[in-house]
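Quick one:
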Amino acid sequence: MCEHCEDSAERGFRFCRMCGEYLGEPGRKGFGGKNIGIVMKVGLLITLICSVLLLMGIFVAFLKSGYVFENLADATNSLVILLPYPVAFAHISGAALQFYYVLLLITVLVSLILVFCKSYKPFVMLVNEKNAEPMKKTALFELSVLFAVMYSISFIFIIILTASGTTVNDPFEGYEPWVEIFTYLEASVWEEVVSRIMLIGVPMFILGVLLKGRTGTLCEPFDEMWSEPEGTAVASDGVTENFADSTGDGNGGKKGIRWWNYLLGGTGLNYAALVLIVFSSMIFGLAHIPLWGVWKSFQTFIMGLIFGYVFTKYGVHAAIALHFLADYLSSISWVSEPLILIPGLATFALMGLGAVYVYVYGERMINFIKRVKKDFKGE
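Output:
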């Protein structure tokens, strides 16, 4: 959110004329106050559903940990990097693989704890003050609504595949359930390491080293670049800060951000990150072809864009949480097959509710492109 948001809301705009932030329906009273618009209510419902699914997923992951741990004693796993197809650089088995599995469990658990803890104060403000603005700026809210957007797009994609007669193969067919449980858990963490940290974080880190804080337009966050020198904005954690106090510190942007922070994400969108998000998403899509087939590459490209956006804006912990949510949606079926109805109904609800945010992000994207065009024209 920038200093122009309130003015845009008072003029009846649904989106801020500068930063593209969604402001609610025209004529809404009390911008940022006690009246919560219908779109925000939909977003909060999506967040509630996704929060339940995340908790279910981590519960199942730990519930089945003993079963997976035992089988890993006699298994071998390959660690891969993307060049752009997956290329194995190490093989681990036995006790080392079991340790790796425990490390994956801990990483996902810590990521979820961070996501939920950073949403606590905004949630309290939502309940006590009926102020939804801080909640809207949390990783939990945005990864939830983006997950719903992903499922809405995927639903359309599946309809197209079905209509074209394309057969979708299950790569885990014939394998024992523990293989799928382990593979999806590993994907939630390791794919974020090789796709987001290595393809976005490391290049941004290198840019930071080479530029030594003199990031200029290339690495300057959009929320700062598109605000007035004395403007204010709400950061991703819902805290309002003054850009006059947070820039010009020689560290490449906001106060407290150093160039090495780029490795783990959460430093904000900029032109360099935007290019790297698109590039990493292309590699991410290509990497799924050997296991899933060509049809999966387009879908995973879209998912890569969303994962990259979440990584850049909120950090790798949020990207891991979103990836875990996407891969463990149907995890409850590993506990009891009849209970598959629960994530099934949740998926159906998310596809419908997500259509609202497909429109919201679509219009936001249009405004963003207009802003970028102005930058290139020097306006």
